[in-house]
Amino acid sequence: MTTTTDNTHTDTPQTGGDISIFESLESQVRSYCRNWPAVMTHSQGSTVTSEDGREFLDFFAGAGALNYGHNNPALLEPLLDYLREGRILHSLDMHTSAKRDFLQAFSDLILKPRDLDYKVMFPGPTGTNSVEAALKLARKVTGRQHVLSFTNAFHGMTLGSLAVTGNSMKRKGAGIPLTNSSKIPYDDYFNGAVDDFMWLERVLQDSGSGVDKPAAIIVESVQGEGGLNGARLEWLKALSDLCREHDILLIVDDVQAGCGRTGTFFSFEEAGFTPDIVCLSKSISGFGLPMALTLFRPELDQFEPGEHNGTFRGHNLAFVTGRVALEKFWADETFQNEVQAKADELRAGLTKIAERYEGASVRGRGFLTGIFFPDVEAAGKIAAAAYEMGLLVETSGPSDEVLKTMPPLTTTSEELASGLAIIEKAAVSVLGDGNPA
Prior knowledge:
This protein is an alpha/beta fold and 437 residues long.
């Protein structure tokens, strides 16, 4: 991320504390701290505070891991009570009361109201663990090896997840060939010039095509890291129908777009189909604690005991906060309706900014929305300027050409307005007035 050299912001981001130990000892692979070098010490709701007392409005939300804000008191107090009582913390996949209560709440408040009949698997505690489990299960069940994914997809940093990821820089880090996967065009990849799935339908129907039937297709309904490309609901439904027709498992990676970020708990709900497998992580714990789920139809529950395991599957603190988050925010449609209304406010504000600049456009859905700029350096410069003005906002896309906003879902309308005002001011500092309304 770079910055311009005008009087509005500086070339070197403010650090707000001593960072020498990070620079001397920590690996150079670190990334977010290069753009936001302040030493953070406190957080509450949508605000993060640095060591020197600066307050930052958070339009990043832990890359989507903090949908309910920082240190939400409704989740914090039950967590502290659990710790004070000396309850079990680490338990592998043993039975615990915390896990039982989470599973019951997830069944009662999420699965049953949506008529979803899924088994729940606890893989390792991160999004890429959920994806790895999904890919491994799809291959085991079908007996096929190949998996199709989409242009500009991002599914994680471990080798299986990287194999179905599109980003060339991320893939390069693997150091070995990433095989048993092919990429197919995401929705509107050809700007409407090619019919949806025309090539895929043809090769699946043609026994002479030389293309083996895949075990699964994995898709994000909104490509969080790939440029905030949001698939049309009818496109997603058509993909599901195609998979059903050809006996291909459909995996929806809802790690970033799930847990309410697009306006409904699952990002695919409005499209009117049921995936075979769903990957969840990020905000499923509700508190930023590591946790992941892999959901799948009961007939796919074919792993042998211990065939896919991990030491940190039994994160009981995450079970506690995850249960409370479900009970507080998803017991009825009140919170969902509030999120959808505020998402409209966010989109309207971003649209107003985008309309100032030729070629700029709004992308994404819900609280996973941003602005594409035709100048590929613009989004990074605007994000850097916003940081100097007290806003944490990142970029997305293969060239970081999209300014990506993903505030906590609990962000107030007043905070949204404040953040949008900073983005507008930052855009003007980088690109000029454009065509103000």
